Amino acid sequence: MIKYDVVAIGELNVDLILNGIERTPEIGKEVFAKDMLLTLGSSTAIFAANIACLGSKTGFVGMIGKDTFGKLIESSLKKRGVDTSMLIYSDTYSSGATICLNYNEDRANITYLGAMAFMTFDNIDKTVFTQTRHIHLSSIFLQSGIKRDLLAILQFARENNVTTSLDPQWDPKEEWDMDYKTTLPYVDIFLPNETELKHITQSDTLEEAMSKIQPHINLCVIKCGRRGSILLQKQKEPIILDAFINNEVVDAIGAGDSFNAGFIHSFVRGRSHKESQITGNLTGAINTTTAGGTGAFTSKEKIKDIARKKFNQELKIE
Ligand SMILES: Nc1ncnc2c1ncn2[C@@H]1O[C@H](COP(=O)(O)OP(=O)(O)OP(=O)(O)O)[C@@H](O)[C@H]1O
Ligand SMILES: [Mg+2]
């Protein structure tokens, strides 16, 4: 029985955010921060929370520890309407955590990957594949277990008539070890940003990167920040869609995940690629109107209101 529109398979962690730090910390000394926030982190969680808010029935498969942070992650996802019954609690590893040191515009992050690095295809209850219409995979370079089993997961999804999307996200090791020629034929929608795509294909220009992946893709949407997005298919001209202009950007944290949420919400409802691309650009732009990745996504009405008031657009999410 189909229970979910979308199941996200991805990384989970908490963010411990320190603001107003008086000086750069030095070994052997101590500095004060003026403000602290402990909150749900991880880009796949932003995606899941926001697509649930748009109205998709959403489940999450991710690995966390049997600890306080794990409980915080689970309750935060639940509060945002994401089904957490498929979360996997590790006996061995702690939940992942990122400490974010904010210095005005700049920040330094330290991440402990913990349980998220160790989830594998074996850990995933296979009934998931008969309960959802779509699976979204993200942040493969943070999850070595999922990265190793990526092809098996994609192939299993296809055998079960489940469509898939993949957002590779940044590789902190900057090795960009992804066999795109083998993987992409099994991905229905590939969702990198332009820099990630150039790294994965070892290209100097975006044009070169697009021509390298084009023979292997089904559908690829390349996110280009304030310049919008490019939709690419096999043997077709790329479709470039300008961003919705926001002259008062608060920050662009999570814009890519919000783009993914809008695009996939529209795609699973059977809308055209063009409509899905417009919806993605709009939800990406809406993301930039408040701080963080989920601030603008509190209710359907609120999201539609921002679309109307800030961008003069009707957001089609029904
Ligand atoms: N400043 C902006 N103004 C309007 N729209 C924006 C802006 N920044 C991003 N967007 C929209 O959001 C989409 C995704 O943003 P971006 O290209 O930054 O993704 P990303 O690099 O994957 O982000 P993330 O850091 O969340 O992973 C863009 O394609 C665009 O449509
Ligand atoms: Mg991204």
UniProtKB/TrEMBL annotation:
Alphabetical list of Gene3D superfamilies matching this protein: 3.40.1190.20
Keyword Transferase tagged: yes
A Pfam family the protein falls into: PfkB
Gene Ontology molecular functions: kinase activity
Keywords (A to Z) from UniProt: Kinase, Transferase
The organism's place on the tree of life at top rank: Bacteria
Every Carbohydrate kinase PfkB domain range: 5-294
Name of the featured protein: Sugar or nucleoside kinase
